[in-house]
From TrEMBL:
SUPFAM superfamilies: Glycerol-3-phosphate (1)-acyltransferase
MF (Gene Ontology): 1-acylglycerol-3-phosphate O-acyltransferase activity
Superkingdom as given in the UniProt entry: Bacteria
Pathway(s) this gene product operates in, as recorded in its UniProt entry: Lipid metabolism
Signal peptide interval: none
Name assigned to this protein: 1-acyl-sn-glycerol-3-phosphate acyltransferase
Organism placement in taxonomy: Bacteria, Pseudomonadati, Pseudomonadota, Gammaproteobacteria, Moraxellales
UniProtKB keywords: Acyltransferase, Membrane, Transferase, Transmembrane, Transmembrane helix
InterPro entries: Plipid/glycerol_acylTrfase (IPR002123)
Transmembrane segments: 64-85
Provenance organism: Acinetobacter calcoaceticus
Coiled-coil blocks: none
One BP term from GO: phosphatidic acid biosynthetic process
Pfam entry (one): Acyltransferase
């Protein structure tokens, strides 16, 4: 995928991508994002359904910059969260952000529930942080992969680069069913294209690829 010039920002998302906001809201959020010295590189693939992964995850700032970028791009990104979150006064905030409640009784049941929800939708991009935590994960959690493969979805690969203040949309990856082999290929795409906010909290699989 070709890269736009620095500080240009895609205001209108491709027509097949699930969208949110208006031209005005996209302009406001993209300008707020750019004014903090950040930029976006890459082009969003024009596909209606996908699992979007973003790494590295080492700081609460990741959510802030990622949220601004997604709103600036005008992409409706769905994130699955505990159903109990919607029993709080913040339930309307979670709904506006794009959090969808699920029952998290078991990992296998959760994956199947998410796959079922995706298959029933006409358009849906699922947002997942594969590391699962911002504090030095020992491994990359496989949930994002099993959801993508089970729902027959491509994986759109995003990366944070704090050294250059860039969020990159790098590649669309199609699973083969061989998790270990595919994970190695996905990590190879990240090599040289990311940098963390807190290097000490970088997940162990990414430590081998950083610098």
């Amino acid at each position: 995928m070709s890269k736009p010039q620095p500080n240009q920002f895609p205001i209108v998302p491709p027509d097949q991508v699930p969208q949110r906001g208006t031209a005005l809201s996209r302009k406001c959020f993209s300008q707020l994002y750019l004014k903090q010295g950040w930029r976006f590189e890459g082009e969003l693939p024009n596909i209606p359904k996908a699992v979007a992964i973003m790494t590295p995850h080492t700081s609460n700032y990741d959510a802030w910059f990622g949220f601004l970028a997604i709103l600036g791009l005008g992409v409706q990104l769905t994130v699955f969260g505990k159903a109990s979150l919607f029993n709080t006064p913040l339930k309307h905030v979670f709904k506006w952000i794009g959090v969808m409640p699920v029952q998290r009784d078991s990992a296998q049941g959760l994956t199947q529930e998410i796959i079922k929800t995706i298959k029933a939708a006409d358009r849906m991009w699922i947002g997942i942080a594969p590391e699962g935590t911002r504090k030095q994960a020992k491994k990359i959690k496989s949930g994002f992969y099993h959801i993508a493969h089970g729902a027959d979805l491509p994986i759109v690969i995003f990366a944070f680069d704090y050294d250059h203040k860039v969020i990159r949309c790098m590649e669309v990856f199609y699973t083969t069913g061989n998790y270990e082999q595919d994970l190695e290929a996905i990590l190879a795409i990240y090599k040289g294209n990311f940098s963390p906010k807190n290097a000490a909290w970088l997940s162990k699989p990414l430590q081998n690829l950083y610098k």
